[in-house]
């Protein structure tokens, strides 16, 4: 079966939430605020009953802007409420099916046919909303790799200081 759905929520995304806007990026990753942050991660599609990792990395936030900072990364929710929302992914729907034959059919059907962006355009046209789908923007290359790497190392070190350590396999994006 495919990889299970993974959701990434950056601290910049969380700071757009009114109840979290007053917290700094470092306060958002602090264990002292874990319960508050997890409530919003749950709403944004992360299954907080499973492991949620914090990564210092170069990433794209929900407004499609790239930057270096912290992201919370976890498994996507598969409950009925989440699956009824348009933000749920195909991977989450496949995982939630629980029937191996149905999962196989869904995987087969999802790998045949037309590209996703073309499919979305056709759906929009059928619903009279032509031109509303935004295709995924290409990622720009990092201008200064050495500077970006230095910033990510600094953020990783701060994360270790705040949280008392990191999971080097899942949370250390630098591997150095």
Q: What can you tell me about this protein's structure?
A:
By secondary structure, the protein is an alpha+beta fold. The protein has a domain at 6-98 and 144-163. Helix content is 41%, strand content 14%. The chain has eight helices and three strands; from the N terminus they run βαααββααααα. Strands 1-3-2 form a three-stranded antiparallel β-sheet. Strand 2 (52-60) and strand 3 (66-75) form a beta hairpin. Helix 5 (90-97) runs antiparallel to helix 6 (100-111). The longest helix is centred in the C-terminal third of the chain and has 19 residues, at 145-163. The radius of gyration is 18 Å and the shape is globular. The two termini are 32 Å apart. The relative contact order is 0.16. The model has no long low-confidence stretch (mean pLDDT 81).
Structure characteristics:
8 helices; globular; 176 residues; alpha+beta; 3-stranded antiparallel β-sheet; 14% strand
Radius of gyration computed on alpha carbons: 18 Å
- The whole-number mean of residue pLDDT values reads 81
Percentage of residues in helical conformation: 40-55%
- Percent strand equals 5-15%
The dominant shape is globular
Number of strands: 3
Measured distance between first and last alpha carbons: 32 Å
SSE pattern: EHHHEEHHHHH
Tally of contiguous helical segments:
8
Given helix and strand content, the structural type is alpha+beta
As laid out across the biggest beta sheet, the strand order is: 1-3-2
Biggest beta sheet summary = 3 strands, antiparallel
* Parts with pLDDT < 50 across at least 5 consecutive residues: none
């Amino acid at each position: 079966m495919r990889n299970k759905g993974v959701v990434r929520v950056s601290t910049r995304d969380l700071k757009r939430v009114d109840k979290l806007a007053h917290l700094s990026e470092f306060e958002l990753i602090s264990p002292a605020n874990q319960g508050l942050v997890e409530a919003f991660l749950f709403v944004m599609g992360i299954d907080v009953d499973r492991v949620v990792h914090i990564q210092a990395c170069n990433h794209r936030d929900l407004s499609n802007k790239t930057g270096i900072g912290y992201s919370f990364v976890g498994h996507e929710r598969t409950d009925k409420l989440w699956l009824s929302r348009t933000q749920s992914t195909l991977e989450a729907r496949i995982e939630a099916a629980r029937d191996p034959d149905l999962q196989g059919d869904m995987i087969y059907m999802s790998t045949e046919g037309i590209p996703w962006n073309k499919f979305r355009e056709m759906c929009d046209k059928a619903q009279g909303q032509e031109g509303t789908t935004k295709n995924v923007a290409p990622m720009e290359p990092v201008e200064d790799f050495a500077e970006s790497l230095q910033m990510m190392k600094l953020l990783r070190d701060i994360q270790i200081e705040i949280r008392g350590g990191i999971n080097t396999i899942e949370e250390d994006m630098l591997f150095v």
